[in-house]
Predict the 3D structure of the following.
Amino acid sequence: MSMRRGLLAAAEALRSTTRRMAIELACHTRPHVDRSGFRLVALSNDVDWQRFVARIDEVIATIDLYDKRRLAVIRSRVRSFVLVSDGGDHFDRDLRAIVLNERSVVLRTLADLTLLVVHEATHAMIHARGVRGSWATQERVERLCVAEEARFARRMPDGDALAVQAIAKLDRKWWTEDKVAEREEALFRALRIPHWVLRVRRFGRRAPGPNRDLSVSDHVVANHVAIAKRATR
């Protein structure tokens, strides 16, 4: 069992390092611009660069309009926005970057895209408070991020309806291991990471670890909620 755990840990480390290095290299070689305290980077060859910049400008302006203190907190936790052609929207903790799928940027309404950024920025805040991802706590963390979406949504026009839509998303359970793996493999393909790394990634999917002291996790998450509420009040 210990050997299997070691192999799984090694595969997970390779996956994480490969993804981080691929994105980091692309961030230094692809077009980028600094806007409102963030670096914007496009990793897609066919992206409408001006559209991407304009949409992120709109999102930042919207958060600034309705919750200036939240924007200040986001600036302290998020360094950049990275646009990819495929794979799921997520916060990359190694790069402190919000990674956005091109479809999200192009097709979502301004309100939906803003709430997505609020959601991913909440992941950044939770990570900064010391909560590390595990399958045991993933649903709890996602529910907190959605709750922050709903709280911000209520400040916007038609906010109650937007908050209801945000909470309804929880039925989709996008945080399961299989769904996370599908999105990450799509991202790997978009970044042209070699196929053998994908095979290692499949082998290295995180197996359920020993039960954590969830009371500690609950305490840290609850602490984050209190801090977030004070910061954005």
Observations:
- The first strand starts at residue 32 and ends at 35.
